[in-house]
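This section describes the prediction task in plain terms. A model, or a person checking by hand, is given the sequence of a single protein chain and must write out its three-dimensional structure as a string of tokens. No templates, partner chains or ligands are provided. The sample shown here is typical of the held-out split.
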Amino acid sequence: MNYFRTAVKEMQGYVPGYQPVGDEYLKLNTNENPYPPAPGVFSVLRSIDPGLLRLYPDPVLNSLRERIASNFGVARENVLIGNGSDEVLTIVTRSFVEPGETVVFPEPSYSLYPVLARIQGGVPLGVPLGPDFGLPDEFVSVPARLKFLAFPNSPTGTAYPLELVERVLKESSGVVLIDEAYADFADENCFGLLARHPNLIILRTFSKSYGLAGLRVGFALASEELIAGMLKVKDSYNVNRLSAAIAEAALSDQDYLRRTVAAIRRERGRLSRELEALGFEVFPSSSNFVLVRAGTPASARRIFEELRERRILVRYFAQPRLDDCLRITVGTPEAMDRLIGALREIAGAHPGGEEK
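The expected answer:
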């Protein structure tokens, strides 16, 4: 017998990037920050009272909400905390999508979006991005109960013009979630649109720029009405005490955030230039990764596999429009030197050789 709902039985679940056991790999496949979190994080870890761990955390995490609200100049009631930004995406889908309703997202983009739509019984609709991964007019005009828009987009690294994003908000009758997981690495973000558009939810995370992917803390910024409704849907105690306290400490050190982000942006530029010199087509990136075209699907897969043999992990997507590409996380200068050296070795072993 099969006990699962039809939608669950027929769907394919989200497939995360490979997580190796141990530290023998140079891990450039899941866009983690190569630098440790802010020094204040370690003070929290040293001072935590283990006796507090027997007690439930604040169910709505007001202390962290107030810290985030202060940073953004909004009210506490405009903030929702999630167990990573992925849980916030789940809460949003459960809050606004009825079975049979359409959920729209660009394609290619974060592959969790269609999974969440199917789990909820919604109808996922991917709108193909343009030739250079630009956002097409169809995305603006297509009706939907919920639209997901990553800014910058992953895995392409694309940041769309803010004027175009605002058109999406103006012409959408449903909710629009702007997924700003990588926004700290971009020149612009969409926060300034929040006060003008009651259908906007902005999603942020501590996983990328704050270097806290292992903690699983994310948050949404939205109108008080939207936040109040989503609070009904979230799990009772969805973020633990330790994670919330560490997130507060990281948020308190914005100077450290700016320094690490600047270092990653500098290295992103150097890596892009080095990859272009090796013959890759490098797409413009506003994130902490770069997407590169490696010629053909066969050559991209070969490079991916040969890097893995050298204990270097990058991301390969076996799907249309991406199967000739690799996504590479920006690491420290030393890590990028190792990657570039390995790519030179691979190129030397296949002089002028591009599989057909």
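For orientation: The radius of gyration is 21 Å.
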